[in-house]
Amino acid sequence: MLKRHDLLLLPGLLCDARLWRDPLAMLEDRVQAQVADLTQDDSVVAMARRALAGAPPRFALAGLSMGGYVALEIMRQAPERVTRLALFDTSARPDTPEAARRRRALMTLTRSGQFRGVTPRLLPSLLHPEAVDGPLGDEVRAMAERVGRDAFLRQQHAILHRPDSRPMLPGIGQPTLVAVGEQDVLTPPELAEEIADAIPGARLARIPRSGHLPTMEQPQMAAALMRDWLSGEA
Fold this sequence. Notes:
By secondary structure, the protein is α/β, with parallel strands linked by helices. The protein has one domain: 3-Layer(aba) Sandwich (Rossmann fold), CATH 3.40.50. It is built from 10 helices and 6 strands; from the N terminus they run βαβαβαβααααβαβαα. Strands 2-1-3-4-5-6 form a 6-stranded parallel sheet, sandwiched between helices. The radius of gyration is 16 Å and the shape is globular.
């Protein structure tokens, strides 16, 4: 019988459990999974503490985008509890000045009462161009509405003030998968390459026909990568 893993999943900005739904359905025989709530706190340190408080004693850990920032913070706080690590479409770098300026502009727009205008502005950066105007785009918009305005502001504050995680990467000893959508424009493949190059033995995987959300855009491929990772092949 195959070993079942406790798996802690960390969503991205304006994402909830829907982000991981489809790959999890394909991994039911391999995992006992829980999706952390990253909507309550305004720092990655606090997000990581909350996630750890509700997690099993030891677990496999996967994060996407902002969830990747929190995953790296968990690796700072409690690396002994993490059995293996998967980082999807994320970066180890802090924001550039230009990215920080754009982020603050979205926060200002949100505070002015225009939260519903945020997701249409972000959608072309989140999905492969073929998916923006289809059902998947509708699902991403609905997911953002569920997360809501106040959580969006907290999450953006956390992202703005995240640390530079590059110095810690060579010290990660867990089996690590680094995956990225080929068409990701928010955290493009070169940022994934930087992470994979710095973590000893990490596997880098590029996911074709996918933007920033491959677990929704290409769930079968995401699930296959995670199955290999959980089997010790990544």
